């Protein structure tokens, strides 16, 4: 006979009852009235952050406000140079990009989020970060609470005691673990599935939030991260081409002046490559103003500050 079925009989003798359905499980651990209101508040905050991220303006650049964004974000003449948007037919401010899905230019463009059906840009990055952090905490809290509830059920029904006292199973983790898991899966399979799901989602949200938090702390966007990779790769190839051309020119001129004996294979093998003399490419992010200033810029975007509104009126 399966151990979980025997445990059912033994626990019934002790006037206990193992609830198999989700309904009975929720009734057994029915939350207090204040806890219910807190749960509704947590869900409400999550929905509010979703709506703010999805429906708020990410920082649309138009002909009316383009001067404000041109003042807020200067060109670095590296990954951003002065140019015009071929679709909107307006000057393209630094750090902006035209989103083909939304069909608009977005200031401080990070990426287009398919889950939010909106671009993540200058004005709604703060809502997006709050959304990730809030739902990470909710999922983590849910996984921990379910784990504690299941542990409480093990203690309430004295599963460990029954396994060791009535079945003679050794009181060690390696011996008890498979039997405890068998009992939990037979009694609370829905709750275990939900706990694992919440744990996995919380890990994914933690990684996603950590990645974007790093970008915010360094005042970089996802779009700029790829731009810098392309720029550094291109610049390195240009420098190597210059060094190779100079080395080839020096070699040709040396051969024309005097004939030297051929170089040995070993010496040629250990000879320093001219490409090692190429100038190193350094990332110079002029928008990185320190952790505190970078965070302040995310929470209070530059274009929303009164100083930039005044500068726009002066330009007009």
TrEMBL record:
Keyword GTP-binding part of the UniProt annotation: no
Signal peptide: none
Transmembrane regions: 37-55, 132-152, 159-180, 192-211
Membrane disposition: Multi-pass membrane protein
GO cellular component: membrane
Keywords associated with the record: Acyltransferase, Membrane, Transferase, Transmembrane, Transmembrane helix
EC number: 2.3.1.225
Localization annotation: Membrane
A Pfam short name: DHHC
Enzyme class, spelled out: transferase
Molecular function as annotated in GO: protein-cysteine S-palmitoyltransferase activity
InterPro entries reported in the protein's UniProt record: Palmitoyltrfase_DHHC (IPR001594), PFA4/ZDH16/20/ERF2-like (IPR039859)
Domain Palmitoyltransferase DHHC: 81-229
Catalytic activity: L-cysteinyl-[protein] + hexadecanoyl-CoA = S-hexadecanoyl-L-cysteinyl-[protein] + CoA
Domain notes per entry: The DHHC domain is required for palmitoyltransferase activity.
PANTHER family: PROTEIN S-ACYLTRANSFERASE 17-RELATED (PTHR22883:SF286), ZINC FINGER DHHC DOMAIN CONTAINING PROTEIN (PTHR22883)
Family: Belongs to the DHHC palmitoyltransferase family.
Protein name: S-acyltransferase
Lineage: Eukaryota, Viridiplantae, Streptophyta, Embryophyta, Tracheophyta
């Amino acid at each position: 006979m399966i151990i979980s079925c025997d445990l059912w009989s033994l626990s019934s003798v002790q006037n206990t009852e193992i609830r198999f359905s989700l309904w009975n499980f929720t009734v057994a651990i029915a939350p207090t009235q204040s806890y219910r209101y807190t749960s509704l508040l947590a869900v409400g905050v999550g929905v509010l952050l979703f709506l703010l991220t999805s429906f708020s303006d990410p920082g649309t650049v138009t002909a009316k406000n383009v001067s404000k964004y041109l003042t807020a974000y200067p060109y670095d003449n590296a990954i951003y140079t002065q140019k015009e948007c071929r679709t909107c037919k307006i000057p393209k401010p630094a750090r902006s990009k035209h989103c083909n899905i939304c069909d608009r230019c977005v200031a401080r463009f990070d990426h287009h989020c398919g889950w939010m059906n909106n671009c993540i840009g200058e004005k709604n990055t703060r809502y997006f970060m709050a959304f990730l952090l809030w739902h990470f905490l909710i999922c983590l809290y849910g996984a921990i609470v379910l784990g504690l509830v299941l542990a409480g059920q093990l203690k309430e029904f004295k599963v460990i005691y029954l396994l060791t006292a009535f079945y003679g199973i050794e009181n060690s983790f390696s011996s008890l673990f498979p039997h405890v898991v068998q009992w939990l899966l037979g009694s609370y399979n829905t709750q275990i599935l939900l706990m694992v799901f919440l744990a996995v989602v919380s890990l994914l949200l933690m990684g996603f939030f950590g990645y974007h938090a790093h970008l915010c702390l360094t005042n970089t966007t996802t779009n700029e991260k790829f731009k810098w990779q392309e720029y550094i790769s291109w610049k390195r190839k240009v420098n190597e081409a210059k060094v190779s051309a100079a080395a080839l020119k020096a070699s040709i001129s040396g051969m024309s002046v005097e004939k030297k004996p051929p170089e040995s294979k070993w010496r040629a093998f250990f000879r320093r490559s001219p490409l090692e003399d190429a100038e190193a490419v350094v990332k110079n992010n002029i928008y990185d103003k320190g952790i505190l200033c970078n965070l302040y810029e995310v929470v209070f975007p530059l274009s929303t500050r009164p100083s930039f509104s005044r500068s726009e009126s002066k330009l007009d």
